[in-house]
Write a structure and sequence with these properties.
Length: 692
């Protein structure tokens, strides 16, 4: 249903997994009520009158459901839905008491939602076939149909025909706190009813959505055209360090360049220069004229600009980066007003999307970044580099062990084994058997997955109704699938297995799926890790496992630091809603340095570094960052739990749970809530092994 809810707020959720998110203190719902343009129509007196009418008609046990349901319908009711009298009539006629009638209503709604969302999903996937699969030239017609989303108005339609109101009136919405407290004792059916209650919590006007979409597209365009021409950068001596044509996008390209300069000649000097560029971007001292320009030369250290060898005057970028962030924030504030149940973006991100309270996430991150294990790994890195750490070593890349297996041999093997997409499809059940699935289960899951040769790197698209198949879209070259394609295909296959179990084997449709994207990523990575084993090979690279663990811990340290900054910046924006771009810049400077000084300065032996503020996500994917480390933790915890156990049995057992809240899912899956302990313990063990 998360996927389904995704339909409804399509512009707000970032579906790209990209393997490639104290509020209560600062954003108090009672202190700062959001403007509720949709809540004014039905007065408090009308609501009470309706509740009285209904309570007279029904048993006393229905009182709470009546009160909650009527208030919720009132909050969503708009002029076009009818008069106050019509509102009262609707509520009194459509309220269904608990028991057989409500059960029947639930079953019918579930069945019909499955038909509708399932078909729309299938339609979308099929219409995008010419765009996404390797099937010859893309024509205008393909583009027109591929961009068409037939379900774009589905939520509006459900309000217009009153189906949404019927759901809102009869299926209670529980906020995250209630779900976490009560959910533990709920039956599966109670959970399924609560998930039905999660539908239709907001009714955002098309205008407001459109405005958000435009503003976010503008921000996107700003970042996608934010390139630095590396061949134009000058050192103090007027030297150039990078290839003439090298063009890097902020921040991904710049960051990857830092990563690729470990253990190369002159690497450190180049890394220092890239960091200097980043600092200029963060504090907006970068001359506006050098952004995306292959004409001018620039010394990022002195900040001087040259044209044909002569210094020219230049003005700094006028805080455009922060203007875009504020634009996005303000567009989101308008959406807030249409979400009576979850009125701030922080709430929607943490309570609704990730379903883990922000305080818990903050605590996990803080504990990991403060841990003694991080300090030890920092010392190991410094020793390996034979120098003091520099701030950009948050992207240290030297733990990746060179594989003992020759990639050409691997390519040969995967090409022979999988000359076509169909060859892989025919082998899926076999792969599952190697992962300990029984014959019967392997055939069952494999029969629900289709493999297609994709244009891009590959992705997994799940079905939204039983009877439809999940798609494994992966790259198959003319000569068959190379190792890289195979490696990605195994990852995507992990997603497909999750998608299949969590749709077909979950007992209620409203609970299909996983609590958040971290869970599906976890299974995908567990599959991917076994890719060589599935080919019947063994990687004998010395210390590969141990080094990988240290690499993962260091990566978690970095991304958690960045996420903490992201979260604090959002709190600041809610607390300072009229801020100017310059004020936001000042706040981000302060916040990023505070986080650095608290959790990084001791490891790096330097204070006041702004590096954690460089991520472009902060401009274009609001509050997306925390989802990455959460996914890493889940992967680690599940990975460690299944070690030595029957992988298939455990996978089925865990993912059959469907969409309960993450902490309960984890408790029932591995016996503990989301925790940093497995990762830290593994790092201790790895460091011990490496020492020996
Ligand atoms: Zn993935």
């Amino acid at each position: 249903m998360k996927r389904i809810l995704g339909f409804m707020v399509i512009t707000l959720l970032l579906c790209n997994c990209n393997s490639g998110d104290n509020k209560k203190k600062t954003v108090d719902k009672t202190e700062k009520p959001t403007a509720t343009p949709i809540a004014n129509l039905i007065s408090a007196a009308d609501i009470s009158a309706t509740v009285v009418l209904l309570t007279k008609k029904h048993e006393a046990t229905e009182k709470e459901r009546i009160e909650k349901g009527v208030a919720r319908v009132a909050a969503l009711w708009q002029k076009s839905d009818g008069t106050v009298e019509e509102f009262k009539t609707f509520c009194t006629e459509k309220f269904i008491p608990q028991g057989e009638k409500l059960d029947i209503a639930f079953d019918k709604l579930s069945a019909n939602f499955e038909i509708m969302y399932g078909m729309f999903n299938k339609m979308q996937l099929d219409l995008r076939v010419p765009l996404e699969l390797d099937k010859g030239e893309v024509t205008d017609i393909d583009m027109l149909f591929g961009a068409y989303n037939a379900s774009a108005h589905i939520t509006q339609d459900f309000f217009a025909n009153k189906i949404a109101f019927l759901v809102a009136l009869n299926f209670r919405f529980f906020d995250l706190e209630e779900k976490m407290k009560k959910g533990e004792n709920w039956s599966r059916k109670e959970w399924a009813f609560a998930r039905m209650g999660d539908m239709f919590t907001s009714r955002i006007s098309a205008e407001v959505l459109q405005e958000y979409s435009k503003i976010s597209t503008d921000a996107d365009a700003y970042i996608s055209e934010y390139n630095i021409y590396m061949g134009k950068l000058l050192t103090e001596n007027g030297e150039k360090l990078f290839p003439e044509k090298m063009k890097l996008i902020t921040h991904w390209g710049l960051r990857d360049e830092i990563k690729s300069n470990y253990a190369v000649d002159n690497g450190l000097v180049k890394q220092e220069m890239v960091y200097s560029v980043m600092q200029n971007i963060i504090n907006q001292s970068i001359p506006e004229s050098v952004i995306n320009s292959d004409k001018l030369e620039w010394n990022p250290n002195s900040n001087k600009v040259y044209e044909n060898g002569k210094e020219i005057a230049a003005t700094p970028e006028p805080n455009t980066r922060y203007q875009h962030m504020l634009n996005v924030f303000r567009a989101i504030r308008k959406i807030d007003a249409y979400n009576p149940q979850v009125p701030t973006y922080l709430d929607r991100k943490f309570d609704e999307e990730l379903e883990i309270p922000m305080e818990q996430i903050e605590q996990l991150f803080t504990e990991l970044v403060s841990s003694p294990q991080i300090r030890k790994v920092g010392k190991i890195i410094s020793k390996r580099l034979c120098r003091k750490l520099r701030p950009f070593d948050i992207w240290y890349d030297g733990f990746k062990a060179r594989s003992s297996i020759n990639e050409d041999d691997l390519n040969k093997q995967t090409r022979e084994k999988y000359p076509t997409a169909m060859a892989l499809e025919n082998d899926l059940a076999n792969i599952l058997r190697k992962l300990q699935f029984t014959d019967e289960k392997a055939e069952y899951i494999a029969s629900k997955i289709r493999v297609d040769a994709s244009r891009g790197a590959g992705h997994a698209a799940g079905a939204s109704m039983r009877g439809d198949k999940a798609r494994l879209r992966t790259r198959v070259g003319k000569n068959g699938m190379n190792y890289k394609g195979y490696n990605i295909a195994v990852h995507e296959f992990g997603h497909n297995v999750e998608q299949t179990i969590s749709l077909y084997d979950v007992d209620y449709y409203t609970m299909n799926g996983v609590p958040n994207t971290g869970f599906t990523e976890a299974l995908a990575f567990l599959f991917q890790k076994r890719d060589l084993e599935l080919l019947g090979m063994k990687d004998e690279t010395p210390n590969k496992k141990e080094l990988k663990i240290l690499d993962q811990l260091w990566a978690a340290y970095e991304i958690m630091g960045v996420s903490l900054v992201d979260m604090k910046v959002w709190q600041w924006m809610y607390d300072n809603q009229d801020a100017t771009p310059a004020q936001l810049k000042g706040a981000i400077d302060k916040i990023s340095k505070e986080v650095w000084n608290k959790y990084f300065a001791d490891v790096f032996e330097s204070k006041d570094e702004p590096i954690l503020a460089i991520y472009s996500h902060m401009v274009i994917y609001p509050l997306y960052l925390p989802a990455y480390p959460i996914g890493q933790l889940i992967e680690f915890q599940i990975g460690q739990y299944v070690e030595g156990k029957n992988f298939a049995t455990e996978t089925e057992r865990m993912f059959k749970q469907g969409r309960i809240v993450p902490q309960q899912w984890m408790r029932e899956a591995v016996g503990n809530e989301l925790s940093i302990k497995p990762m830290l313990d593994a790092a201790d063990e790895a460091m011990k092994q490496l020492d020996e």
